[in-house]
Amino acid sequence: MKSIWSKTCNIEKQPALNGDIEADVAVIGGGMAGILAAYQLEQAGVHTVLLEAERIGGGQTKNTTAKITSQHGMFCHTFIEKKGKETAKLYVQANQAAVEEYRRIIGKEQIPCDLRVTDSYVYSRNEEKLKKETESARELGIDASFERQIEIPVPCAGAVRFPGQAEFHPLKFIEGLAGKLNIYENTPVKEVERNRIRTAGGTVLAGKIIFATHFPFVNFPGMYFARMHQECSYVLALEQAGILNGMYIGDGEDKLSFRQYDRYILLGGQGHRTGENREGGRYAKLQEQAEALYPDCRVAAYWSAQDCITADKIPFIGRYAPDRPDWLVASGFQKWGMSSSMISAMLLRDLVCGIDNPYSAVFDPSRFSAEEVPQIMRDTGKAVKGLTKRFFHIPDETAAALEREQGAIVDTPQGKAGVYKTEAGELFQVDIVCPHLGCELSWNPDEKTWDCPCHGSRFDYKGNLLEGPAQEGIDKEEKQ
Ligand code: FES
Question: Measuring from each residue's beta carbon to the nearest atom of ligand 1, which residues come in under 6 Å?
Answer without folding.
Answer: 225, 434, 436-439, 452, 454-457, 469-470
